[in-house]
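> example.struct
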């Protein structure tokens, strides 16, 4: 039951971030859009961290391993001299 609550909080967190993309087309003023967007960002972050707390260390490790995989793929593209010693410079 507790894991279900954690997954529901994670889902609500994702929906709050997706709602940020929809808010500008709902006819609010600029000040209202800024306030609603700020509230959605804060709520999304709080719900995300609360869901991580509820789901536990194993779920956090799973997310972290997927992000490391994504980061390693981008580093290979961004850094052409990967694997070379630091004292070698391009001349």
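> example.seq
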């Amino acid at each position: 039951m507790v894991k279900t609550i954690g997954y529901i909080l994670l889902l609500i967190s994702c929906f709050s971030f997706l709602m940020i993309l929809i808010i500008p087309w709902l006819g609010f003023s600029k000040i209202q859009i800024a306030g609603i967007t700020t509230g959605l960002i804060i709520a999304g972050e709080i719900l995300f961290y609360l869901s991580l707390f509820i789901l536990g260390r194993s779920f956090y490790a799973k997310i972290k391993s997927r992000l490391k995989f994504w980061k390693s793929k981008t580093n290979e593209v961004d850094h052409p001299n990967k694997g070379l010693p630091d004292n070698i410079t391009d001349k």
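> remarks
The mean pLDDT is 84.
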